[in-house]
Predict the 3D structure of the following.
Amino acid sequence: MSLVLPEPPSGIETPAVYIDLDVVDANIERMQASLAHSGVSLGPHMKSHKSVNLARRQLEAGAAGITVSSVGEAEVFAEAGFDDIFVAYTVWAGNPLRGKRIRDLHEHVRSFSIGVDSVAGAQQLALATQGSPRPLRVLVEIDSGAHRTGVPPHEAGDLAAECLRLGLDVAGIFTYAGHAGKSRDARPEGAADEVQAAEQAIASFSAQGVPVGIVSAGSTPTAHFSSRAPMTELRPGEYIFNDADNVRLGTCESLADVGLLVATTVVSTAVEGQVIIDAGTKVLGREGNPDKGFGLVPSIPGSFLRLLNEHHGYLSIPDGVERPSVGDVLTVVPNHACPVANLFDEYVVLRGGSGIGRWPVDARGHLS
Ligand SMILES: Cc1ncc(COP(=O)(O)O)c(C=O)c1O
């Protein structure tokens, strides 16, 4: 994995996160093109970038709507004018403040829907939107093997029927095969699980006489394999940036496809044998392990970010390789881009190798 990555603009204060718009646009185009003749629409997940500017680029390229993971994220994008928003999360609407915010979104966003995987959750959503001019749209979440959330596929119809009895509008089903991100082989297997689970859920809906409109699946690791019937929509997020994990999984070709990078500075070499950079967990998140490290520094062959404290990253350099000096600026490729985006207020934006400005990470911190 050795490669020359775009340099951060000179004079930049670190740590900073910078995005290469040429790479980002190519990533957006590639995903959109891969769905071109599939009959499957794209509802990219905003959790990966939380940026209104980047979301607009995804819509301009052909995305049908957007996916978010919290009511707060939905509010930020609704405020910016986005009118097709799916909260792919089993939000608990029992808190009165939360219930009111959901109702406001439901009544002001042209197409607004939300995930559900329990009768209790559905009851709270129904209560929160009782008396609205139209019923709240929900999608039943099914578990396709990640075993995180979602009802067993064969029980999806029962929950759908209950949602209808509660006065909700059941638009369809959604699933997320998180287990597909474990390895290269797990990708097609996870996608096959999504398809199989969706087919079972459709049969279960049909047994209850409930029509299925939307059949929505995740994710960057599975998108290539699950862009086919019965899916009607995919919700990948990470593909816009990619990261070291996506290179390992083969969801993108190489580090040249990574559009989000972290600029760091060597701040200490005082302890014998150690190189310390100003990027710890408060910059890179905790994504990593002692085997693969906590991020890559491609400009130093064989180097290894072996440990992170909050504000310090420990960079191991192999014997015989030139060591960086205090003050040197290094580029880190994160293992996972999404948590990094969530840790910064703004992106430094590069186009054609030059800095063109800073964009806010608009939905940062809007977690509730
Ligand atoms: C429900 C749901 N949908 C879609 C995605 C997008 O997956 P990815 O970021 O791997 O593309 C996620 C990611 O966590 C998710 O939780």
